[in-house]
Amino acid sequence: MKHQNVWVFLEVLHSKLRPVGLELLGQGRRLADQLGEKLVGVILDPNAEALATEAMAYGPDELLIVQDEHLAQYHTDTFTTVLYRLVRQYRPEVFMIGATDIGRDLSPRLACRLKTGLTADCTELDVDDKRIVLWTRPALGGNLMATNICPNTKPQMGTVRPNVFRIPSPDPSRTCTILHECLYPEEQHSLTAVEKIIPILTNSTVNLTEAEIIISGGRGMKDPENFSLLQELADLTGGCVGASRAAVDAGWISPVHQVGQTGKTVCPRIYIACGISGAIQHLIGMSTSDTIIAINSDPKAPIFHVADYGIVGDLFQILPALTQALRARKRT
Known about the structure:
Blueprint: E1 6-9, E2 12-13, E3 16-17, H1 19-35, E4 39-44, H2 48-55, E5 62-66, H3 76-90, E6 94-98, H4 101-114, E7 118-122, E8 124-127, E9 133-139, E10 144-148, E11 156-160, E12 177-181, E13 213-217, H5 227-237, E14 240-243, H6 245-249, E15 270-274, H7 280-286, E16 291-296, E17 309-312, H8 315-331
């Protein structure tokens, strides 16, 4: 039996499909069309049937689901064993997984068990004329981009960063085939058990990948104390504070705020870049934002080439004025 079709793992978190899976359906559709294969989404969850009804609007030809209460919480052993069995049974040619915490835990274990290769943290995908997937990812600390291939083993596997690609427009009228598989009794047992899930997101941390508004600062902030200007604006708008690598390397702000090739890839509704020149490493991490606003004193800064709105001027005058205007508008 030959390997065929392009698979996308549709990760579920808090009973909802995570956006990265839908993003990958868009890219999977493109690769499947290039290969002349079907696009298949895979869902493991107690509510998989209902989630499949939602997912089919985003382009898959088939959805392979395993619906069982034992899949309510992600568990490395269980999910790896189930996916291993499904891959061996259906033999996909390509398998894409989101580079989330779960995806980064699951994918290397699955690839090792399948004895195939895995390219991690990809930001670009393509297929050559020999049906080989070209997995492109940052390398050497983000200083260059490397394209990896896995021509000798199948499936060709890779994890893809969230927010790199846009979610395709859904078609509510679209339908597809749903294939049901069961959870085997031996797949329900594991050497470890999950006793409790403790959320790590507190008021002192940030969740850049899901933020709708991000106000980021770079070398132009000049001093760590000046990031309070960004925090004030973020608090006012319900956003998060981000930063360029230069600001993080200078020790002005924690690495958890870093946006870019070696930080977080984000896709907010509004991204405000303050004192950020626009190095390619930073642009890769935020260029898919819906609206980009750049504030910089240098009119030739590369950030203006990707910005929807650009303000040339002193950010230490512009930011307080912007914050004051927004605060006044909230009062009215």
